[in-house]
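CHAIN AND CONFORMATION:

***
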Amino acid sequence: THAPYEEQQRTDLLRETYQTAVSIPMLRVEEIWKSYDAFETRVDRMGAKQQLSKISPSYMTARTALREMSRFWDTIRATQSNTLPQPPTWTAREVEHLDAWKRYLKWEVSNPLRLGGPDAHKRVIYAYNQACMELWLYPEVWIEFAEYYTTIGQQSDALTKLQTASSVLPESLAVQFAYAETAEKMKQLDVCKQVYEDVVATQRARMERITEKYTRKLAKLDKQLARRLEKSNGPDHKQTDDQLSSDSDLDDFDDADDNASIGSDSDGGDALAFGEDAKLKRTAQRTARLRKA
């Protein structure tokens, strides 16, 4: 047996726990409500109605919110890839998944549970953290998260979140500029300067990689052009379609239409020669354009 004081403490603690639980849009909230109803009736049949009516509006709000939230999560789960985060390629499924997350985040920001300030902020921050874990390589999610921190007056948290985003997405100019702008507003000029220096270094390295890539492609085109010119000036100028198609690999330049210029008549030497000359001309033009670029 418990002393009356201890029993009352136990009853108050259970009541508080039940009232908190039925105010949250969690699974099986209706069952929790029925259990709470039975608890209050068992404790005090006369006072049960008063206790239940006091918490009933919060329960009804939570039950409605659960139905709405379930629709958002059904779409999120239906479109997720179940793999580690990958850079977006903007397929229809990826766009739908991102939109589903953004609709859910917007719903959380609207405070459908009508919570007080701190509790509402905690829910939204938790939702954004979930979104960032799944949409790890989507700059806009990180930026929106930082903007939310700013709207609730937590600038230092906004800067910390953008610092993380900066390390995750070093080549995203949107993230880097948002990070620098936030640092500047907070008078952290050393951070701002470092961000811009990192942007310059990252973009320079990126340009060098691109230059190296297309330098290799130009060298490959030069070799192909030299081989074609050598063959076109040689004694055996007429070649079969198979020989022409195996001469070079121009897949990187999307040259699938080259074969269209070669005659469909396998015995037509003039058609083959014309097709070869056309391919040479286009290859030379492509090389010139790439060199100008």
